[in-house]
Amino acid sequence: MVCEEAIRYEDLYLDGEMAPDERLRMEAHLAACPACRNRVTEWIRIRAVVRQRMGEVRAPASLREALDHRLRRERNPSRRRLIPLALAASLALTLPLAKGLWSRPEDPLPLEDHAVATHLAIAGPEVQGDRATVESFLQARVPFPVRVPLPDRPGIRLLGARVARVGSRPAVVYLYDASGHRVSVTQYAPAGEDLPGAPRVGQRDGLTVVTYPAEGLVQTVVGDLPESAVSGIVPAAWPR
Amino acid sequence: MWPFDASDRRRRFEREALPHLDACYRFALALARDHAEADDLVQETMIRAYRAFDSYAEGTRCKAWLFRILKNVFLNRRRTDGREVDLEESLGAIQDLGWEDRPFYRSPEDAAILAATRDRIEEALRRMPRDFREAVVLADVEGLSYQEISEVMGTPIGTVMSRIHRGRRMLRALLSESLGLGQEAQRETTGETADPESGRVIPWVASREGGHGL
Asked: In which residue ranges of chain A is pLDDT below 70?
């Protein structure tokens, strides 16, 4: 290795991102070349200083308190329920079969919030391929009949899918590239009260959110694109 | 079939996610305009993370997962603000400036840089274009791998590498400059003559302060 190479790769070396054999070559060069060795040593020291000084920055106490307060509200799902617990319990006694249909305490939020949160947090698909491949992978993992939601059309590309949950329920998230926009479709089985009769359209955090029923399932489309563009993506299930 | 226990989620979240609150705040500061915006970003991120915690796969690094949410929250807000392309981003597109790759050797400025206070480093970071600041903070302060940084920044690994490479050299030059060691030290260490072109340490900083961007 010559100095030019050592300079080019010094960041990779610093960050432990070199392949083992390259690393050995680098170390051999550093052992033989005081100038490169000094330079790399300086970078290591500068980085250590930056890490140490900036690592001292802490979240302010006021932020911790505000967050604690908000998280506690998240943890208190019963407040958000429309049916008081006692009534739900008595209904459950008289209608034992319907028990599973009531809003459950482990579902603290409207399911759309879960879909938006999942959209923001999702890492990437766990299965990729054509519709049949994706469907058979998913079908082995969720207890409802999966169906890749959006039809094939120009400008919409299925990137893949992932098993997820909305609240306590099993769900599937499909990831699409819609002309450069990231679009996800969360699909899950309805539990009574959350099956919308008609599509619901809304905006959250700059994202367009559309929930609609499709073939006995609920689908929530989330995307960073305007509502008008969503109508071009959501299939005929959404009458305009 | 899908066992779920809200209190179990709470415990897991407290154990795995909340310890990264300080790191999230530091990353938010690297993105945001000010402390208030950073504060908002972190709160929103943590709430989103809590709601989506069931989709967090054990085994992936929680810090990188939180950073990814934070970056998405940040970008969505900027889009809503209509500030999608801000000055920093356009400045970040400036191509090779010629000074970063010059080799330099142990020099008097290093001792001063090593003694730089947190305020100095923060100020130097603030003066960097956001993309470069973000890469340097993620690599040098938070210790993320290139793969993790690429996922947080939504850019290929090659871009991550070049941002880290150039970002570190910008930071170093800005620190030298703020410590009064800038151009002189740079020239001394490279043994170059006083070429007005190569003597410019970071030409865009001046133009930025002049308020006319590119």
From this structure: 75-110, 192-198, 231-240
Assess B105–A contact: CB distance below 8 Å, yes or no: yes
- What's the CATH superfamily of A109-240? MucB/RseB, C-terminal domain (3.30.200.100)
Query: Does the domain formed by B87-209 have CATH 3.40.50.1100?
Result: no
**Number of helices (H) and strands (E), helices first, in chain B?**
13, 0
Q: Is A34 on the interface with B (CB under 8 A)?
A: no
Cβ within 8 Å, pair A51-B104: no
B-interface mutation test, from A7, A13, A15, A144, most B Cβ less than 10 A away: A15
- Whether residue B47 and residue A70 make contact (CB cut-off 8 A), yes or no, is yes
Tell me whether B36 touches chain A (CB under 8 Å).
no
Q: Which of B28, B25, B17 has the alpha carbon at shortest distance from B134?
A: B28
Note if the pTM is more than 0.90.
no
Cβ A51–B140 below 8 Å, yes or no? Answer: yes
Q: pLDDT digits over B18-77, tens only?
A: 999 999 999 999 999 889 999 999 999 999 999 888 777 666 789 999 999 999 999 988
